[in-house]
TrEMBL record:
InterPro entries: K_uptake_TrkA (IPR006036), NAD(P)-bd_dom_sf (IPR036291), RCK_N (IPR003148), Trk_Ktr_HKT_K-transport (IPR050721). It comes from Baekduia soli. This is TrkA family potassium uptake protein. Keywords: Ion transport, Potassium, Potassium transport, Transport. GO terms for molecular function: potassium ion transmembrane transporter activity.
């Protein structure tokens, strides 16, 4: 499976390494060339020698998306640090490029729920934290 991940921060790079180790073809797009270093944490080789791809560019740039392989993508993951960017590029991947599976990280629970209803697979760490804290409070009450 070909997976395109936009955003090589802690989350994106960890998902990328895990997917590559599981045998998937993984391409990562990030605007910071230094984020490439995160992809190699824990590897005995370079990211590219391990089979990964890395493209420098912004996820809203058509040329960068094309170079990163969006036309080949079976899965698109938006994991930048901005909800607006993640939601916009996820919709582009879903509607314009017709990527089969689109996963988007959204920090705002209300927006995550709405976009989930629109057909995007949303992951909301904030909502997960709220649920965990609420459960922990219920356990000690």
């Amino acid at each position: 499976m070909f997976i395109l991940i936009v955003g090589a921060g802690r989350v994106g790079s960890s998902v990328a390494r895990t997917a590559l180790a599981a045998g998937h073809t993984v391409s990562v797009l990030d605007e910071d060339p230094l984020s490439h270093e995160r992809l190699e944490v824990g590897l005995d080789t370079t990211w590219e020698e391990a089979g990964g791809r890395f493209t420098v560019g912004h996820g809203m740039e058509v040329d960068a998306l094309t170079e990163a392989g969006i036309l080949e993508a079976d899965v698109f993951i938006a994991s930048t640090d901005g909800d607006n960017t993640n939601l916009t590029i996820s919709q582009i991947a879903q509607r314009h490029y017709e990527v089969e599976k689109v996963i988007v990280r959204v920090m705002d629970p209300a927006r995550a729920a709405w976009y989930q209803q629109q057909g995007l697979h949303t992951i909301c760490p904030t909502q997960h934290a709220i649920e965990m804290f609420t459960s922990a409070l219920g356990a000690i009450a």
